[in-house]
Amino acid sequence: MTPITILRTRHPALLATKVHRRTADGIETAAYGNARTFDAHLAEVESVFELATLLRRLATDPRAFVVRGIPKPGRSLHGINRRVHGEDADLMPHPEGLHWIKVDMDGQPMPVTDAVEVEGELITGVRDPKAAVRSVVEAYLPAYFQAVTAFYQFSSSAGVKPWSETRLGLWYYLDRPIPDRALHDCWAKRVPAIDPAVYVSSQPNYTAAPIFEGMADPCAGWRQGLILGDRHELCIPGAELQPIRTAPKVSEAERARWQAALADADGELERALGYISADDRETWIRVGMALKADGQPFSVWDAWSRTSGKYDATDAERVWKSLDPSDITSASVFYLAKQAGYEPAVGGKPRGRAQTLATRRRARWRTARASCRS
User: Fold this and answer.
1) Cα angle at 200 between 240 and 4, to 5 degrees?
2) pLDDT tens track for 205-216
């Protein structure tokens, strides 16, 4: 059994969902209420099917949502806040972690499949909701998500905002409890398409269906549902829950050497990439983020990606679109290359076996780049 903390707003006017109203000028949307105090209730589930039953019930309560945090021992369950820090905080992370997770996927390009309706270049609706959900899982989530039973909920904005982007929440039951910090600080950073905020212990995981006034729900009858898979528990590999290695700070002199090398992007960047193997997925994503931050086009990353025997064109294009380079700099390419024996032409020359391997990779990189351009 694993606990789920249900919070319910105390004031009836402060809702935990959106209200869409049809007016003469179009559709007006009232956002979530800014409630500060709640009544808490603890539920328990021990399978994805019990989780789905609970979520179906909560979907009918516009004042309820769930959080990953649990009430602190000895605290009243009435009139609590949802803070986890400070002496007056009423919530705390579960010390052992929880068996359930929500995967929040908003704002990614909706895959164009037979499951959606398309007019010209625009997606105008959903023809087969479950098939559409499966296409999103296949397009954006790692292989270990495939064929796993999940409860899906289209968000409160689905059907009102354009279908060109995903507006979807997926709920899974895990094979073991996982702490919030491991999910937020480690795992979520490896899956660029998802929102890590829901793994903060105090963050609302919204469950209520939206309210429509003067109009019907565009997703009536299929806003939520169960996707059956071959397995009913999600297994996230242990390695995915480990901290991502980050580059240490470097001296200004060394950074200047790298930036000087970067200025000669046509030659030096290509030479640096020749030292980096594209086989490791974590490195592959880091290099993509760095190149995107530097303003390099997809073709540069794609050509380097093709030097790996694991290359998948569809996966490469999808990941590139989802990369957010805000937390990494272009110097990371040169840092990774240096770890493999690279030295910038400004102030040093590559040596020995590292140079031989780099030359071979660079030859493959040039071949791949030529094939991209042809």
Assistant:
1) 95
2) 999 999 999 999
